[in-house]
Amino acid sequence: MKKLYFLLFTFLITSISFAQTSDLYFSMYGEGGGSNKWLEIYNGTGSDVDLSDYSVELYANGSATATGTEALTGMLNDGDVYVIYNASAVAGITANGDLASTITFFNGDDAVALLKTGSVIDVIGEIGNDPGSGWQVGDTAGGTANHTLVRKFAVCDPNSTNLDSFGTDDATSEWIVYGQDAEFGQIGTHAACSSSPILTITAPGDLNEFSPETTNVTVALTVLNFTVANGSGDGHIHWTVQLNSDSPVDQGEKYDTSNESIAVTAGQSYTLYMELVDNSEATIGVNQTVTFSVLPPCANNIGDIIVTEIMQNPAAVSDGDGEWFEIYNTTGSDIDINGWTISDNGSNSHQIASSLIVPMNGYAVLGNNGDIGTNGNVSVDYEYSNFTLGNGSDQIILTCSGTVIDDVDYDDGTTFPADSPGGSMELSTTKLTGTDNDLGANWSINTTSQYGLGGNTGDFGTPGAMNDFALSTNDFNKKSFSVYPNPTNTGSVNVVSSQSSNGKLNVAVYDVLGKQVISTKMNSEKLDVSSLNTGVYIMKITQGKAISTKKLVIN
Question: Is the dihedral of CA 221, 226, 229, 235 positive or negative?
């Protein structure tokens, strides 16, 4: 109940007159990325309302009976709104919220209803039916999924009929449809039942960011209680477009409400202004401004940053505390991934909102919990939200300004390793490319290095360090190889096979980037490593059909 925001909003629209609504109703609905879910209830009745007579019910997956109920309490002042939100939503939602509730655990195919003394008075969706992914709202297919809905100002009454408020097109719909995670600025304010002219720019949304390859942006609008025409109606539209801080450019007079198209360029910001004027060209005080931008092209190439380790199912702590994944910089320069997005193919998405430098040929760890005391002893370089790792199949997609830099799609045993609670899934240290990490055969479950407190308890993995897994091992049970001394600082190591009669050993040594630095057929047990710098290397040892890999440490 954000009365202050309402008063500010009312001040801005003093030229509009409002009648009273017949009862409370949903004024806003958000089905955004991850946990960004919320419902807003508006009181325009002319009187303060006791919320104890009202409740909100959730009907998930086509259920004909409520699968969740939230009884409301307190008083809702006239002209105010009541915002119910998911506790894990972003601050732009929770800051204007009144009640954190699991009733917001809905998806686009779940119906929600507002009830008064046990009877439905307003409904979003269709109780008892699952549309698959979402219901059509106006002209927008799947409008209840991954969209923000705002009730039109002209609406004076709740609507208890399933799907009726969605109309058959944008003109008959009671809702304005915005994109996913849009219009946070409208949360906490609403005004309705207006008989005065209203102009609303429905696209682009305010503060929208478009991908660098965008060349045209569509402008869509609605006008209520005002006939837009050339001389025969109430008036027409004046509009301008401003590039960055340049002077606004007049786009001429608009005599209809059809869509327009604006040519745009990557790396630029735009301000769109529209206002209603009467037939004498006089402004009537009804206008709207939105700003949007087109992201600059990404300065990095595909595969510059790759995913190298994934802990999707920790055992020592809960998933909510201990999920993380590791990324690796394959280039010779540091890369700051501030502004990049991590996402999956569903609704999970998080934009990195601060500087995160991944050092050249180095690692960074991103997790859902940065507290080393509760996350299983992981040093997390960046804590994200609104992104979870599925224990079975899921994706990690790294995007820079609309360009997918890396995408790992693991599948719980089909081609990637099957889920193994407590063990990270790690990429071979000789397969550190954005194409090699697409292949499940290049990944393995870590069962050797524990990162718990004391170094010998907790879950397995090597967050922020080189993985244990390297290459593949064939016929290992039939033949074994030993390497000593290891670590070494003597300039050489002994490489010994348990079955020396089966031929000479072929040895290849790789650095952590997968670059081969030694390749030799050994005529004795001693391998010269004096040319190697201090560090960690991977040895591939081949004898006949037997292949083994060993970690080699040079001190």
Answer: negative
Q: What angle do CA 368, 372, 377 make, to 5 degrees?
A: 100
Q: Write down which residue in 234, 267, 296 finishes a domain.
A: 296
Both tokens assigned to 490? 């003597």
Instruction: Write out pLDDT tens, residues 296-343.
Output: 888 899 999 999 999 999 999 999 899 999 999 999 999 999 889 999
* Whether 498 and 424 share a structural domain: no
State the Cα–Cα distance between residues 243 and 544, nearest whole angstrom: 68
Structural domains in the chain (count): 4
Q: Which of 235, 263, 296 is the last residue of a domain?
A: 296
**281 and 247 fall within a common domain:** yes
Is residue 364 within 8 Å of residue 384, measured between CB atoms? Answer: no
64 exposure class (CB count in 10 Å sphere: 0-12, 13-18, 19+): exposed
Q: CA–CA separation, 262 vs 214, rounded Å?
A: 11
pTM for the structure as a whole? 0.56
Categorize the per-residue pLDDT at 498 as very low, low, confident or very high, splitting at 50, 70 and 90.
confident
Cβ pair 549, 471 in contact under 8 A? yes
Q: Which CATH number goes with the domain that contains 30?
A: 2.60.40.1260
Left if phi > 0, otherwise alpha if psi is -120 to 50, otherwise beta: which for 461? left
Q: Which residues make Cβ contacts (< 8 Å) with residue 9, sequence separation at least 6?
A: 189, 190, 191
Where are the strands (E) in 505-544, listed by range?
506-510, 516-521, 526-528, 535-543
Query: Rounded CA gap, 379 and 363, in Å?
Result: 12
Answer yes or no: do 192 and 286 share one domain: no
CA 440 to chain CA centroid, Å, is: 24
Scanning 82-145, the segments in alpha helix (DSSP H) are 91-94
Helix (H) or strand (E) holding 168: none
Residues 175 and 46 in one domain: yes
Task: Give the domain extent around 192.
Answer: 1-196
